[in-house]
Amino acid sequence: MSYSLTENHIPGRKIGFEGAEYLWLGGTNYLDIGAHPTFQNALKEGIEQYSQNFGSSRRNNLQFSIWEDFEQALASHFGVESAALCSSGLAAAQIAVQFTQQKGLTLNLAPQAHPALWRHPHKPFTGSYSEWISSHQKDQILASDGIGTPWIKRFDFSFAQAMDPSNYLIVDESHRVGIHEIQLPCSGHLLQTASLSKAFGLPAGVILGSKNNIEEMKKDSFWVGSSPPNPAFCHAGLKSMEAYKEQSQKSKVLADRFAEKLQGYEVAVTYEAGYPAFCSKAPGLFEHLKSSGILVNQFAYPDITAPPVCRAILSTALTLEDIDTITDAIKCYA
C-alpha cells in the first residue's frame, strides 16, 4: 500500500491520519532540529538580519560573510579541510560530478547510487557492490551513496585506502551526515556531498573535500553560476552547531536502543546497528505497524513504477519508550 496525506505543519513525535493519532516514523527529519529552541531562536535572528532569501551569483560584488563562516564551521565539524555550500544536496552532487568529469575521467556509479550522482548516459552498476569495487580502473570517478537508501545497507569503503591517487571518490552522504560517522580514509581525491535539509533542517547542500579541490571547484562556471543558500538559514545552522551535536547524541541513543531490543530476534526488517532507520519489503508489515499505532513511509522510490518500500526513521522526537513500542510491534509481526 502507498498512501498520501497533507499537513499544514511539520509533524514531530505524532501525526494524525484517517481520524487517528500515530507515532510518526516518516520523512527524513532525523534530528527534529526545527523543534530545538536554539535553532528556532537562531532562525528568527537570521530572518531579522537577512530578511528573506538573497538571489545572487556566487561571484556577485556583494557577499555575505555568513557563507564562508558556515563553510568553515562545517569543515571543522566533519574533520575535513574545506567545504563549499550549495543551494541543495542535488546541486552539490551534480556540481561535484561536473567538476570531476572535466578532468577527463570516466564516471563509474555504484549500485544504489542516488540519482543526484547520475550523469547521462551513465547509470548505476547492476552487479553487487563488491563486484563494482573490483570493476573500477584508473582514470575513473567512483560515485556512491554513503549508506543505502531507501533500502538500508552499509557499504564497505575500505577499498578507498588503496585507490589510485589520480582517481576521485564522490560519496553522497545525505543520509549519514549529522547522524552517523562519515570519516573515510582515501588515497585518492575524496569529495563528500550532502543535503543539509535532512538532519540539519536547512534548505542547502554542501561539498566537503580538500582545500585544493574545493578552491578549484569554486572557480568552475558550474559552481559560479549556481545559487547560494539562504543566508538566514545559514545563520541558523552556524549558531546551532552545538544543538546538532546534542541531537546527534540523542539519535545514537535511540538507534542503539532499537538494535539492542531486536538483538537475537529474527525480524522482518532490515537495519544497521547505530543507524536510526529501518526498512522492509515484507507484505503486510505496513498495515501491522499501522494497527499498532505506528505510521511509516511506504512508497516507490526512486523508480515510481517499482513496488513500494516500507521505510522508517527513528527521529529524535521519539522517546526510549516509543522505541520499545516500535520494537515490540516489529517482533510481533509474523
Characterization of this structure:
It contains 10 helices and 12 strands. By secondary structure, the protein is an alpha/beta fold. It folds into 2 domains: 14-34 and 243-332, Alpha-Beta Complex (Aspartate Aminotransferase, domain 1); 38-239, Aspartate Aminotransferase, domain 2 (3-Layer(aba) Sandwich). A 6-stranded mixed sheet has the order 1-2-11-12-10-9, covered by helices on one side. The longest helix has 22 residues, at 241-262. The radius of gyration is 20 Å and the shape is globular. The model has no long low-confidence stretch (mean pLDDT 94).
Look at the structure and give the mean pLDDT. Answer: 94
* Sequence of secondary-structure elements: EEHHEHEHEEEEHHHHEEHEEH
The helicity comes to 25-40%
**CATH H level, superfamily name of the largest domain:** Type I PLP-dependent aspartate aminotransferase-like (Major domain)
Q: What gap, in angstroms, lies between the N and C termini? A: 18 Å
User: Shape, please?
Assistant: globular
Strand order of the largest sheet: 1-2-11-12-10-9
CATH architecture of the largest domain: 3-Layer(aba) Sandwich
Number of strands: 12
Secondary structure class reads alpha/beta
**Largest β sheet strand count, sense and barrel closure:** 6 strands, mixed
Number of helices: 10
Radius of gyration: 20 Å
Query: Could you name the CATH topology of the largest domain?
Result: Aspartate Aminotransferase, domain 2
CATH class of the largest domain: Alpha Beta
Count of individual domains: 2
Q: Please indicate the percent range of residues in DSSP E strands (runs of 2 or more).
A: 15-25%
Uncertain regions: pLDDT < 50 for 5+ in a row?
none
